[in-house]
Specification:
single chain, mainly beta, Pectate Lyase C-like, eleven-stranded mixed β-sheet, Pectin lyase-like protein, signal, Pectin_lyase_fold/virulence, Pectin_lyas_fold
Length: 551
């Protein structure tokens, strides 16, 4: 019952939940043990099971977003002059303050009104927060709390001019390739039998490098992409395009994956190592197995937030489906960045979308935010409201209108990532992994009037192929649903989903479909249940909508 109590806090609604299991909504792959109140998992024929996604989010999930004290206040320019330099100077000034023990320097508060920015505002120092006094009318608030009341005060930043750029960019240092971070030789994993998806333990071959491994060390697990694997999943023979454009067949070595993990236990007698976050791809001797090295953790910056703002891009009125000479992203995060939060943001009219998380970024929470009415051509590489190419990020209570890919991942995404309680309306394309084998995404209570698709996209784009594996659709609703998987070494799951199941036009076999047409009432949110199992019910408090106070 505590779990159900915290569910109400989690989504802000008097949600339809049940305290006891019904005859409908039964699942095989994961279920709640009523005696222990813990989730238990069953693997497929290869041992692959749904992994724990609860490590996604700020500081690894279940940690309250900081309430950072205001140290600098700005007011709108009385003559509507360009504010780029003035706001950036304030950001830089706070960025020069000493870091507190909590890694925080302070917040810049933009008082209610309108600010015009012709460039990009850069947040590149730890512990700096950019905050407004209100984000205006926010459909995410209405959808998940029943409150569409416009904030009594609204801080609006307008991206002016015709330059293509993000309005706000959070940027960290460049991260070198993992091979340059290594401070040990390779340790080979025992991968016969394969180490399955969802595993947190594996055995290793003895080596001098293994002898020096210790609990607490950070390692990089390498999963190769040999030509026989690419051939066996059909990615070296994608069909030609009808328009004659080039299709790039996948190549060996271009789809290697590396996973940063921490050692939490070593059993020297059996050479068994336990890691903190589950594996999201299987490691199979047939396909090169796997190995790992110890690394020196690269420098990342963090404790950065953007809060309570309305972000708007100028465009040519009347050219809503054609003008592209204006700002692309409301917020872009890139480089060596971790432990970031984006909260209560409404973005309007950008080419790409609201939040764009690039590779190498990790531990981000985006919550209670909406992307409305993008302005661009309605075609590829545009209108991705909330996109993540990084890892361990959580999108919570988000809303998208008139996008193409409202909630999506890009190429070779490492995961785990979570979209939880998300709504997409008036969609032009689909929701889901978009291209080139993004892995480890949970779509938890995602609802759309369009399509959710997990499939082999074949020669779409320039040869997108298998868009994603270790994808879980949990209690989702859509007009149409597709969920397939490669015939070997991977799986995808659709559990408790409602909509019309349709077949993919491209090669693949059905993923796991369970409780189709009936939501899993016993486990309304997989992310929340996994988080509570791992960290306790108090972790649910961290997921509440925020309440702001202003000086």
């Amino acid at each position: 019952m505590l779990y159900l109590l915290f569910l109400l806090i989690f989504n802000g609604l008097g949600a339809v939940v049940s305290g006891s299991p019904s005859g409908l909504g039964k699942t095989f792959s994961v279920y709640n043990n009523l005696e222990t109140d813990q989730l238990e998992y069953r693997g497929d024929a290869e041992g692959n099971q749904i992994p724990d996604f609860s490590h996604a989010g700020y500081r690894g999930g279940g940690v309250p977003l900081p309430s950072v004290p205001v140290v600098k206040v700005l007011y709108p320019h009385p003559k509507n002059a360009d504010d780029t330099l003035r706001i950036q100077a304030a950001i830089n000034a706070v960025g020069s303050l000493p870091l507190g023990r909590d890694g925080i320097r302070g917040a810049i508060l933009l008082k209610a009104g309108t600010y015009r920015v012709s460039g990009t505002l850069i947040l590149g120092k730890e512990g700096v927060v950019l905050r407004g006094e209100g984000c205006g009318e926010n459909p995410a608030h209405q959808t998940f709390s029943g409150n569409l009341t416009r904030d009594s005060k609204t801080t609006t930043i307008i991206a002016t001019g015709t330059k293509l750029r993000p309005l706000i960019k959070i940027v960290g240092p460049h991260l070198p390739p993992y091979r340059k971070l290594s401070n040990s030789g390779k340790v080979r994993l025992v991968t016969d039998p394969p180490v399955p998806i969802g595993a947190t333990e594996f055995h290793v071959e003895w080596s001098a490098s293994y002898k020096h491994m210790e609990v607490g060390q950070t390692i990089i697990i390498h999963r190769p992409s040999p030509s026989n694997w690419i051939h066996d999943i059909g990615m070296d023979r994608m069909p030609t395009r009808g328009d004659g454009k080039r299709v790039r067949q996948w190549q060996s070595g271009r789809f290697d994956f590396v996973f940063e993990r921490r050692i939490v236990a070593i059993d020297r007698s059996t050479r068994k190592i336990t890691i903190d976050v589950p594996l999201l791809m299987s490691l199979d001797a047939r396909y090169g197995g796997g190995d790992f090295v110890r690394i020196n953790e690269p420098r990342r910056i963090g404790e950065i937030g953007v809060e309570n703002l309305q972000l708007v891009s100028e465009y040519v009125q009347g050219q809503e489906n054609s003008d592209e000479n204006h700002a692309t992203d409301a917020i872009r995060i890139e480089g060596g960045v971790e432990n970031v939060w984006i909260s209560d943001i409404v973005s309007k009219h950008f080419v790409h979308g609201c939040v764009n998380i690039r590779p190498n970024v990790r531990y981000v929470t985006v919550q209670d935010s909406a992307d409305l009415d993008p302005v661009s051509l309605i075609t590829g590489a545009r209108r991705y409201s909330f996109q993540v190419d990084g890892q361990r990020s959580l999108f919570l209570r988000t809303y998208s209108r008139k996008s193409r890919h409202a909630f999506s991942t890009g190429s070779r995404v490492q995961g785990p990532n979570v979209f939880s309680y998300a709504v997409g309306v008036d969609q032009y394309a689909d929701i889901g992994p978009h291209n080139h084998f993004g892995i480890g995404t949970l779509y938890d209570n995602v609802k759309t009037d369009g399509k959710i698709s997990v499939e082999n996209r074949g020669s779409a784009g320039s040869g997108q192929g298998w868009a994603g594996v270790t994808q879980v659709l949990w209690n989702c609703e859509a007009r149409q649903l597709i969920l397939t998987r490669p015939a070997l070494s991977a799986n995808n799951w659709a559990i408790g989903c409602i909509g019309r199941k349709i077949m993919s036009k491209n090669a693949g076999v059905d993923g796991v479909w369970e409780s189709f047409g009936h939501k899993v009432e016993e486990i309304p949110s997989l992310y929340l249940k996994q988080l509570i199992n791992r960290k306790g019910v108090k972790a649910a408090y961290a997921l509440q909508p925020r309440i702001y106070t202003f000086p």
